Amino acid sequence: MKLYWGPHTCAIGTHVLLEEIGKPYEAEKLDVAGGDTHKPPFSHINPKGKVPTLLRDDGSVLTEYGAIATWLARTNPEANLLPSDPEQEARAIEVMDYVVGTLHGQAFGRIFKPQKFEPPDIVHQTLGVGQHATERKGHEMVEEALSILERQLAGRDYVTGDQFTIADSALFYAERWAPQVKIALPPALAAHLARMKTRPAVQRVLSIWGER
Ligand SMILES: N[C@@H](CCC(=O)N[C@@H](CS)C(=O)NCC(=O)O)C(=O)O
Questions:
Q1: What percent of the chain has pLDDT over 70?
Q2: All domains of the chain in start order, with CATH
Q3: N or C: which end of the chain has fewer CB within 10 A?
């Protein structure tokens, strides 16, 4: 099994899951910011041009954070990465989907890649406001999503209670981005991020990535 990852990306959450599972795997670093994911050979492996991408032992490729995380959890039940209780499972997936689709895809996406949401037209170029407006909207959306997640997490160590799940690794990757765009994490999320960093699996991944 091989994980493709790149610095500062959401793939860190997937890498954490592989370390939590503790079985042998390979990890290949790509220069995502430099465009490696859109060039061969990677573009043949995942035409979406995104990490995380998981190349499985049977040669098949799995993409999308939630799909990879759920597959890893279900194929490694001893790691307890996804509760078997249907209510707890649904709550974990609820948070994971919100982080991946809304907080990452919609909100941080507007800040990191505003041109994907609003290509500056002639008016925007003349007035110089196009991307700024999109980025500003992204900031509002990040703050709104964080305040929703803050309420959901309050009083708990992890998303579903005291057990780490695939929702926590998703929340972890997004929490790390907030300070990078000068947004302060609300207290329960800040405590969650600090708690995540005490996990040996997370510490190993941060050391491999050379990040903090
Ligand atoms: N929907 C995808 C999003 C993955 C994604 O946006 N990955 C980013 C890094 S966090 C990426 O690879 N970007 C490279 C690019 O778009 O050029 C998922 O859930 O895995």
A1: 94
A2: 2-79 (3.40.30.10), 86-199 (1.20.1050.10)
A3: C
Distance CA 95, CA 153 (A): 10
Q: What tens digit of pLDDT does each residue of 69-85 get? A: 999 999 999 999 999 99
Rounded Cα distance, 28 and 2, in Å: 7
Report pLDDT digits (tens) over 42-60: 999 999 999 999 999 999 9
Ligand 1 close to Cβ of residue 130 (< 6 A): no
CA of 143 to the centre of ligand 1 (A): 21
Q: What is the mean pLDDT of residues 164-173?
A: 98
Q: How far is CA 199 from the centre of its chain?
A: 17
Instruction: Tell me the C-alpha distance between 43 and 62, whole Å.
Output: 14
φ/ψ region of 22 (left if φ > 0, alpha if ψ in -120 to 50, else beta) reads left
CB of 65 closer than 6 angstroms to any ligand 1 atom: yes
Distance CA 171, CA 173 (A): 6
Tens digit of each residue's pLDDT (9 = 90 or more) over 79-107: 999 999 999 999 999 999 999 999 999 99
Answer yes or no: is the C-beta of 49 below 6 A from any ligand 1 atom.
yes
